[in-house]
Write a structure and sequence with these properties.
This is Alcohol dehydrogenase catalytic domain-containing protein. The chain has seven helices and twelve strands. The protein starts with a strand and ends in a 9-residue tail after the last strand. The longest helix has 21 residues. The protein has two domains: 148 residues, Quinone Oxidoreductase, Chain A, domain 1 (Alpha-Beta Complex); 101 residues, Rossmann fold, CATH 3.40.50. The strands form three sheets. It has a five-stranded antiparallel beta sheet. By secondary structure, it is of the alpha/beta class. 24% of the residues lie in helices and 26% in strands.
Length: 270
């Protein structure tokens, strides 16, 4: 099959199209023909060599959907022709994290595109438990985003932060993949959204997505602007999508506020 292989750390030119063996599923796996594969910031960091544990010679891509073309002998809930989205983590179901319902933290089977095959290819072999059947109403491109930025945002805002209608939420890195989805989700949950961006060119875009207020962060940060916007009360919830801005986010919080840290685009700063 054809696959895009990361030959060395660097720019896009390090991604080269090669012919590699088509993976063969075992009894508990399925082979998926890729229909859509997203480009996540995680992939960009890996390609640049900035991701802890990153190495070359791998196929990137973990935002993926497609059609099942081969089914292992012990797989009964899927069949050839099933439309699926692939859960971005491979989980064992037996470790401490899996047993407490945090399969997303399981490392027993490795990280997709870091320790295992990725989705920048014609086919992807995955555990059948990681392939979720799609309803006909969801297209492949939309589905490919479901398990990474969308599901991550749902967990962060609903499960972790427990955002409530009428609360104020701060979202930094708001124009990125995570931030843009968090913004729309927070609006749908009835929250007031303060979006933070580093570029004035993105203000109109963020307002189009539903931001009530947009702060363009300069060299002095954004906490002073947030305090002004909230009448010196601070925000109830913050989505920290960047990492090295955590201190500024903490200075933006109301008493008893909740911060969820999702991103660390400069590893080692947090």
């Amino acid at each position: 099959m054809k696959a895009i292989v990361l030959k060395d750390f660097g720019g896009p030119e390090q991604l080269q199209l090669e012919t590699v063996p088509t993976p063969q599923p075992d009894a508990h796996e399925v082979l998926v023909r890729i229909e859509a594969a997203g480009v996540c910031h995680h992939d960009l960091m890996h390609r640049a060599g900035k991701l802890p544990g990153a190495h070359t010679g791998v196929v990137l891509g973990h935002e993926v959907s497609g059609e099942v073309v081969e089914v292992g002998a012990q797989v009964h809930h899927l069949k050839v022709g099933s439309r699926v989205v692939v859960y971005q983590r491979r989980f064992c179901g037996q470790c401490r994290d899996c047993l407490r319902g945090r399969q997303d933290l399981c490392r027993a089977l490795g990280l997709p595109s870091v320790d295992t095959e990725g989705a920048y290819a014609e086919y992807l072999r995955v555990p059948a438990a990681s392939a979720v059947q799609l309803p006909d109403s969801i297209g492949y491109a939309d589905a490919a985003l479901a398990c990474c930025p969308i599901a991550t945002s749902v967990r962060a805002l609903v499960s972790q932060a427990q955002l409530k209608p009428g609360e104020t939420v701060l979202i930094n890195g708001a124009s990125g993949g995570l931030g843009a989805h968090q913004l729309q989700l927070a609006r749908s949950l009835g929250a007031r959204v303060i979006a933070v961006t580093g570029s004035a060119d993105k203000v109109d875009f963020l307002r189009t997505l539903g931001a009530h207020d947009v702060v363009v962060a300069g060299s002095e940060g954004y906490s002073a602007a947030v305090w002004q916007l909230t009448g010196r009360q601070g925000v109830d919830v913050a989505m920290e999508n960047i990492g090295h801005t955590l201190h500024d986010t903490l200075r933006s919080m109301a008493m008893g506020g909740r911060v969820v840290v999702l991103g660390n685009v400069q590893p080692g700063t947090v």
